[in-house]
Design brief:
30% helix, globular, five-stranded mixed β-sheet, single chain
């Protein structure tokens, strides 16, 4: 779970099938891509996806995204690990669907949610080769990663925000909290800052950062050492990344490229005070 400190890390927020934007963001940050293969000769550069690389996009873009990630995950990790992926709640839910998890009760409401929010499941049920690639990737997903540069600078990465008592812990409850925070769909009308107040209450004025995605924001949201980089690419906004290089943290993004139809989103803004 600990990242080598001699690499520069490009940490990318929720992709959700935005393969064109993913490639553009990588190129913008110094990677070269030739016929879908990322050039592995760039020294000391590594890629981290914060999870939720599937769902919501068109079937073809989802297929292209899984194929691209699968191919390059193994290409870049041949000698040493240069490509990391965290587990998001969408990967977890799709896995439950396609593995026929007996604890997942299939109701009419659940089928409607599958169609609306987890459309990768239907795609994988029809394409066995793609399903095998997804399952292979799923077994290699991390729950959390940490870059511990010094006593003054570190970055902990999870898909979802969580309370510090769960952060970077390896028990079942902590894993669940780092993959999915409190449900916004089950708490409609509740401000995000009221739903997960621990994020700003536990924020500190230091350089021990916690970076996460999951919350689909209109821009990168920062409060002290808590940072959300899910900037809603699939909602027609942008795909963003955090760049970790030694004891420095910076940010970058590319706009939605309109190569597929975006979906709609009403933002519940984090750190809205």
């Amino acid at each position: 779970m600990l990242l080598p400190i001699d690499n520069e890390y490009i940490v990318i927020g929720d992709v959700h099938g935005c393969i064109d934007e993913l490639k553009a963001l990588l190129i913008q940050n110094g990677f070269k891509i030739n016929e879908g293969i990322i050039d592995a000769s760039l020294n000391n550069k590594a890629i981290i996806l914060l999870g939720d690389f599937i769902d919501k996009a068109t079937p073809q873009k989802l297929k292209d995204t899984i194929e691209f990630i699968y191919q390059n995950y193994y290409h870049l990790n041949q000698k040493e690990q240069r490509f990391y992926i965290l587990r998001g709640n969408h990967e977890e839910m799709v896995y439950r669907y396609i593995s026929k998890d007996p604890t997942l009760e299939i109701t009419p409401k659940r089928l409607e949610e599958k169609k609306r929010y987890y459309n990768t499941a239907s795609l994988l049920e029809k394409d066995s080769d793609l399903r095998d690639k997804f399952l292979d990737l799923y077994q290699n997903l991390s729950i959390w990663l940490k870059y511990d540069y010094s006593s003054d600078f570190s970055v902990t990465l999870t898909h979802a925000p969580c309370q510090e008592r769960y952060l970077a812990k390896d028990d079942t409850i902590s894993h669940a909290k780092m993959v999915k925070s409190e449900s916004r769909s089950k708490n409609r009308g509740v401000k995000l800052d009221d739903l997960i107040p621990y994020i700003y209450q536990e924020a500190k004025d230091n350089q021990h950062y916690h970076i996460f995605g999951h919350l689909s924001q209109p821009d990168i949201r920062k409060y002290k050492n808590k940072i959300c980089i899910d900037t809603s690419a699939i909602y027609g906004n942008s795909l963003s990344c955090a760049i970790i290089q030694k004891d420095k943290l910076s940010f970058n993004s590319v706009p939605f490229l309109n190569k597929q139809k975006s979906v709609t989103q009403k933002y519940n803004i984090l750190f809205d005070f």
